[in-house]
Amino acid sequence: MARSYPLPPSAASLSASLRDLGYSLETAVADLIDNSISAGATDIRIVCDVARKESALAIADNGHGMTEERLIAAMRHGATHPNAKRASSDLGRFGLGLKTASFSQCRRLTLISARDGQRCGAEWDLNKVEADDDWSISILDRDEIAGLPFADLLGDTGTLVIWRDLDRLSEDETGQKRDEIVSDKLVTVERHLALVFHRFLSGEIKGRKKLAISVNGHPVAPFDPFCRKNAATQVLPTETVWVDDAAITMQPYILPHHSRLSPTEYDYYQDRSDFISNQGAYIYRSGRLMAWGDWFRLVPKGEATKLARVQIDFPNGLDEAWTIDIKKSRARPPHAVRERLRQIINKITARSVSVHRGRGQKLFQDAAAPLWERYADHGGIRYALNLQHPLVTSLAGMLPADGGASLELLLKAAAAALPVEMIYSDYSTAPREIRQLDTDEADTLKSLHVLRTLLYGESGGTAQQFLELVRSTRLFEGRQKIVEDYVGGAF
Fold first, then answer.
1. pLDDT tens string 441-452
2. Quick one: which of 169, 167, 161 has its CA closest to 98?
3. I need a surface site. Which of 136, 255, 370, 471 has the fewest CB within 10 A?
4. What is the number of helices (H) and of strands (E) in the chain?
């Protein structure tokens, strides 16, 4: 008969392995903020100081705090069973986040909590764990708690997490280079939190107060990936899928064409990666963004869907169905959700494409005689210069017969050599950086005079006709005031 043989893991080996689960600084900080939100916090302050003798990073909240017994339990690995039923507002699952997230960034984790003015604290020190090869923490006394860095951040009620021995933060750099690395990482942390917790920061979560987060005193502003404040954003009908008697809601959006974004909005969205990489489903668990920018291989990312986003909400009771990982950075939709998402993608692809094509058609329809023409013939699409444009015919009329034929050949060659792939690449990633013109006011006035003379000579034509032709050439984009002043004086 088989006999039982206890075989606990090596504390030294396992603790070292747990440091490399794949957390980044921003995902580690976000994991700790989940605990603060679950504790009812409305104010979370993140402070990082690498200039002091012992570098430290602290996260302080004003949540309901813990007793010593509860605090010690929270420091235990696997504090809760992943399948245990939790409150709908609980953002945890495995009971590992506090420890694994912290150890990914530091070797010394200190947890202090206050409840009704009474403080308690405990500490994990990986150096001690490795030396003893034993899972043991240190329970701190009142004087030790008072002497901790950033202890003044903790009020009468709340929790303070302190990371020390930050062996991965500065990447072994010192001086100015170290400061630059840490500063860049904190900017990334701020942007990550602005997106992941944007619904908490904007006060959208029902039943809880608006959340405030700051990084070294700088408030984190919510970043809405759906651009919902812009009137041009299209909000499509909400769909609901039921899994195990739990509702999963799916809200599709079509973002505005970049020309409908204000300069501030455009910079805000473009600065946080391009529109193509940000397209896809945005998965929220109890209001917290878990994963985003993915169509789950249902459709490849491309221009056709670049403006499409689908907000998907599911409750924490479906964690297993969504295969949520420890870092809360991966989620795979259940089969029923994938099938409904496939149907939604088919609908929103047409909407997303129409936003682009609508703008493209407008460019050609703005003028009575467009300089470029689009043809859909012989089973394909091509773009060609309009050989009947007044500017072309006027110039051809000034040339001898063979010169006119040479001009036509030149224009056809220019159209055939249109660098479509290069334009697509540049326009899809940074459309507002494309500027075809770079002229000053004097050059603009000179070009206007040459154009008028070419078309009408020294006299003739009307202001309206001339403005139509000016618009068709697109030579004077962004120079409307100069054009209007010129036309007012020339006609």
1. 788 888 888 778
2. 161
3. 136
4. 17, 16
